[in-house]
Amino acid sequence: MDLQIALLLGQDGIVNGAIYALLALALVLVFAVTRVIFIPQGEFVAYGALTLASLQAGGTPGTLWLLLALGVAVTAIDAPAAWRQGGRRLVELVGWQLIYPSVIIALVLGVPPQTWPLGLQALLALAVVVPLGPQLYRLAYQPIAEAPVLILLIVSVALHLALVGLGLLFFGAEGSRTPAFSELSLDIGGLTITGQSLWVVGASAVLIVALYIFFERSLYGKALRATAINRAGARLMGISTTLAGKLSFLLAAAIGALSGILIAPITTVYYDTGFLVGLKGFVGAIVGGLASYPVAAAGALLVGLLESFSSFWASAFKEVIVFTLIIPVLVWRSLTTRHVEEEE
């Protein structure tokens, strides 16, 4: 291996690691706030990329109908309580869960998105996929929010399998790739840096900084931090843990969908691609102990670099090498962390 090859591998590792870092942050956020190991995080990556590809091809992505179906289910469940709380609450429920999906569907059917600029297409894909996060939380996790972590994990596995099956139904077995955000190409010392790589790293850095500001400066961010530290204490201080759970899933869905849109021009995305990408983000989250955002981001970058260099030295075993990283981390944390039995 010479210096140029090492630089190329390093570039690929940083680009992949930036995506894994975003997913790791989302996983840490969801687990800290809700105690849910959110295995379906990767499905939002695939849904974001494939929804954008479907819109660009002039199709009607199945995620539109999933958004409406989940909205109907949420409305049916919450309508009685919203009625008792007053007309305004019911109007908000119907507006977000029924009118919003209907407007998006009418927009897609009435004004073909394939003629839109790429930026508007990406925003439309986000508008379709991101609301699925709070809806899934309401239907799958909120009714069992106080259940043990093992039960929540089982629900996550079931939800992952359901979303993968729906992805196959919506988008088929064929993969898709979208046009690059930029055709820029920089040649620095023999190393070619593409505009899409800069977009991935830059967008990831901006999003990480934005999340830091959100948690440090905003009222909702501080509420999420309080819920993550002590759920019972946050509830006693008037912070709604239900709202915190929905907000954490909203952010996780946004991060996942944006990650999918960023990687779609780089690699062909299939209906089940998100699972493997999400697992590598999970490895980064495990390095951070599912608690530390900076360590999780650093661990995800390490995963990206390890994967890149492993593909050069032992491409057939690169996945094994990456996932083996979990073992020494878990052993070390098992020996150095005080064990606390979860209250039933």
Overall number of strands: 2
Structural class: mainly alpha
Number of helices: 15
Low-pLDDT parts are none
Query: Which outline best applies?
Result: globular
Radius of gyration: 21 Å
Helical fraction: over 70%
- Please tell me the overall pLDDT: 89
N-to-C CA distance = 54 Å
Strand content: under 5%
The arrangement of helices and strands along the chain is HHHHHHHEEHHHHHHHH
Major sheet: order of its strands?
1-2
Protein topology:
Blueprint: H1 3-34, H2 41-56, H3 62-85, H4 87-110, H5 118-129, H6 132-141, H7 149-171, E1 185-188, E2 191-194, H8 195-217, H9 219-229, H10 231-236, H11 241-263, H12 273-287, H13 293-313, H14 318-324, H15 326-336
Antiparallel strand pairs: 1-2
Descriptive notes:
The protein has 344 residues and is mainly α. The chain has a domain at 32-58 and 112-187 and 195-272. Helices cover 75% and strands 2% of the residues. It contains 15 helices and two strands. It has helices at 3-34, 41-56, 62-85, 87-110, 118-129, 132-141, 149-171, 195-217, 219-229, 231-236, 241-263, 273-287, 293-313, 318-324, 326-336; strands at 185-188, 191-194. The chain has a two-stranded antiparallel ribbon with strand order 1-2. Strand 1 and strand 2 (191-194) form a beta hairpin. The longest helix has 32 residues, at 3-34. The radius of gyration is 21 Å and the shape is globular.
